[in-house]
Specification:
The complex is a heterodimer.
Chain A (H helix, E strand, L loop, with lengths): L6 H18 L3 H7 L4 H9 L18 H14 L1 H21 L2 H12 L4 E5 L15 E5 L2 E12 L6 E12 L5 E9 L5 E3 L13 E12 L10 H37 L1 E2 L2 E2 L4 H29 L5 H26 L1 H4 L5 H8 L9 H10 L2
Parallel strand pairs in A: 1-4
Antiparallel strand pairs in A: 2-3, 3-7, 4-5, 6-7, 8-9
Helix pairs in contact in A: 1-4, 4-5, 4-7, 4-8, 5-6, 5-7, 7-8, 7-9, 8-9, 9-11, 9-12
Chain B lengths: L1 E6 L1 E3 L20 E3 L3 H14 L4 E7 L5 H10 L3 E5 L9 H15 L3 E5 L10 H9 L3 E5 L1 E5 L3 E7 L4 E7 L2 E5 L11 H7 L4 E4 L1 H4 L7 H4 L25 H11 L4
Helix pairs in contact in B: 2-5, 3-4
Classes of the chains: A alpha+beta, B alpha/beta.
């Protein structure tokens, strides 16, 4: 067993840490307040190859391994969770499905500009009546005259409405299977397709500088060939995509937890009460010790889940464990960071209040904590 | 055009420093980074390469065998190849010994333009560029805040002066040392990082350079460290508290300091 990161993994971590510290962190407050999507920052990240990390160079990616990508996400998320989720949703949910299931033509047409970061892409699974219960999917598509006619709605879709978004891949019911279950197919819908309507951006509690939209499809037609992979493979595809996404959300959560710890530790060393820094009080030391311990454990868990995937071994249970433990660790860390800051923590002048708002969705997005527990239980 | 960026491996500026009984800085592999000043050296080499099609950039470093990691980090920013000069006889070299080695290495590599940082963040000697130029019998344009190569024959620099700047030029091949204001170093790209391990990295020994071990290293060093002391960072501050007259006293203090 060897816990040493490779030279490339270390360099990617160091570079992302430096980039986040210099380019992202100083703007996080302003981006949060204005709920403004940071196009210039995303373009810079694209130029540095951060939007196509785990894809081979022949498809415009950097050719890094999956763990490198997760480590990069941790560091970017440490700078700002909104920028982190933009990178995660684009890479894990937008681009990865093309890489895993796209035909050669689809990879060249869609994956290459995504891996280069010239475009963003969204994945539409959640619906008003179907989140984790994907069996409740209502959006349906009918094949008529060589085209899929799509009708339905999706919501909470990240990256769907930015100026640089190329389109969305959606799950749609395309028929019934012999076993009585719905046949789910993933369909590629480029932005600008008539009948594909992108709603206004949501007003959100956290992740405010990321783009999240409701989508609707009104007799939206795409060519028959816009099926991702094979017809009827949608369920199997997105289950695997979500497993991978959960490891990434785990990494992103560790980044947020680490940012909360960094602020809390610095503040505890500066804040004087009863004539000495509050970091000298055991009550504060124990909080910091618990935060540091849980962050280390959460990091090890996402490393392990990523490693299992890279070894070609099953990792569904571990992916859920990584996501669940890291997001709940981040929640506790953000909460304790506010507590250590006292009244100042409740004010917006310190970043910890933003962490506290941002962290909630880490327990919800890409499968709630309850769903993660259900998945873990199923694998026991 | 052959461009060589000469860099040094230094301990991280934030790392805890300690000295051995011989007053040599104890260098730990885990604290090692490319000299922060040399990020500008590498960046300038890459910018000149971009301006002059067909140019090659070689990163040159004298250091311990483990400095290959530092060279890989430099190669992640860009450049075509790296050369490490490493030999156990080099331990304890002073600036003159280092310059002797770099001059020999530059001669062996062959170059039109050799770039240096203005100093290294560990010893701050700032002697190596000029001493290297002396050994090579070539011109040095020092402390450049701007560098232009006209054609393949002349280097022209600007050097900040008290008022405005000086201009200087020299025929190539020449050596140029750069200051921080010359450019903004790039971040290594993800592709650059992934490509860094595939780039050629050669190691030269003293024998490869045809240098006599007794002319370098601790034995030949004329410069000797005698003692070291930790710099006290405690600053004297004055604090005026309360509402009564504190603002007036702050204003009086600023006037006294000629700030206002």
């Amino acid at each position: 067993m060897d816990f040493t990161l490779s030279a490339e993994q270390q360099m990617i971590r160091d570079m992302c840490r430096e980039f986040a510290e210099a380019e992202i962190k100083p703007r996080a407050e302003e981006m949060d307040r204005g709920a403004a999507f940071p196009y210039d920052l995303i373009h810079k990240m694209a130029d540095l190859g951060l939007l196509g990390l785990p894809f081979p160079e022949e498809f415009g990616g950097a050719g890094a391994d999956f763990l490198s990508y997760c480590i990069a996400l941790e560091e970017i998320g440490r700078g700002d969770a909104s920028v982190g989720i933009t990178m995660e949703a684009h890479t894990s949910l937008g681009a990865t499905p093309f890489f895993l299931y796209g035909t050669e033509e689809q990879k060249h047409e869609y994956l290459v500009p995504l891996a280069r970061g010239e475009q963003l892409w969204a994945f539409g699974l959640t619906e008003p009546g179907a989140g984790s219960d994907s069996g409740g999917t209502q959006t349906h598509a009918e094949l008529r005259g060589g085209a899929w006619h799509i009708n339905g709605a999706k919501n909470f879709i990240t990256n769907a409405g930015t100026e640089m978004t190329g389109g969305v891949t959606i799950t749609a019911v395309t028929g019934m299977q012999a076993d009585g279950h719905k046949e789910i197919t993933n369909l590629i819908v480029p932005k600008g397709t008539p009948g594909y309507i992108i709603g206004n951006a949501y007003h959100k509690m956290g992740w405010r500088a990321s783009d999240t939209r409701p989508l609707s499809f009104e007799d939206c037609r795409v060519p028959e060939g816009n099926v991702l992979g094979r017809r009827g493979d949608g369920f199997r595809q997105f289950m695997h995509i979500l497993d991978l996404g959960r490891v990434a959300i785990g990494a992103l959560s560790v980044g947020l937890a680490q940012a909360a710890f960094d602020e809390a530790r610095t503040y505890a060393g500066e804040r004087q009460q009863f004539g000495k820094p509050i970091a000298t009080f055991q009550a504060i030391q124990f909080k910091l010790a618990d935060m540091a311990m849980e962050i280390e454990l959460a990091r090890l868990m996402y490393y392990k889940a990523a490693w299992l995937h890279m070894q070609g071994q099953p990792f569904t249970k571990e992916a859920s464990m990584a996501k669940l433990f890291a997001s709940e660790t981040a929640k506790r860390a953000a909460d304790q960071a506010v507590q250590i800051h006292g009244g100042y923590g409740f004010m917006d002048e310190y970043p910890v209040s933003r962490f506290w708002r941002n962290v909630k969705v880490h327990e919800i997005g890409e499968g709630t904590s309850e769903v993660q527990r259900a998945i873990i239980a199923k694998h026991l | 055009m052959n461009i060589v960026a000469c860099i040094k491996e230094t301990p991280s500026t934030t790392a805890e420093k300690s000295f051995g009984p011989d007053m040599r800085l104890e260098r730990r592999k885990e604290d090692a980074i490319p000299n922060p000043f040399d990020e500008y050296t590498i960046e300038e080499a890459l910018r000149q390469q971009e301006k002059h099609a067909g140019s090659t950039v070689t990163i040159l470093c004298m250091g311990p065998a483990t400095a290959t990691d530092t060279l890989r980090k430099a190669l992640a920013m860009g450049g075509d190849r790296a050369v490490l000069v490493s030999d156990s006889a080099l331990a304890g070299s002073d600036a003159i010994g280092t310059a002797r080695v770099l001059a020999a290495a530059l001669q062996k590599i062959g170059f039109d333009l050799a770039l240096f940082g203005s100093a290294a963040a560990d010893a701050y000697g700032g002697v190596v560029p000029s001493a290297t130029a002396e050994f090579l019998g070539l011109p040095l344009l020092s402390y450049a805040s701007k560098l232009d190569l006209s054609g393949d024959s002349t280097a022209r620099i600007q050097r900040a002066a008290e008022i405005g700047y000086n201009e200087a030029e020299a025929p190539l091949p020449a050596l140029v040392s750069v200051v921080k204001s010359i450019n903004e170093p790039r971040y290594p790209s993800m592709k650059g990082i992934m490509a860094s391990k595939k780039k050629p990295l050669d190691t030269f020994s003293l024998a490869d350079l045809g240098l006599d071990p007794s002319s370098v290293g601790g034995a030949a060093a004329r410069e000797r460290a005698i003692s070291s002391e930790k710099v006290s960072t405690q600053r004297k501050g004055e604090m005026y508290q309360g509402n009564e007259g504190a603002a007036d006293r702050v204003v009086a203090f600023l006037i006294e300091q000629k700030v206002l």
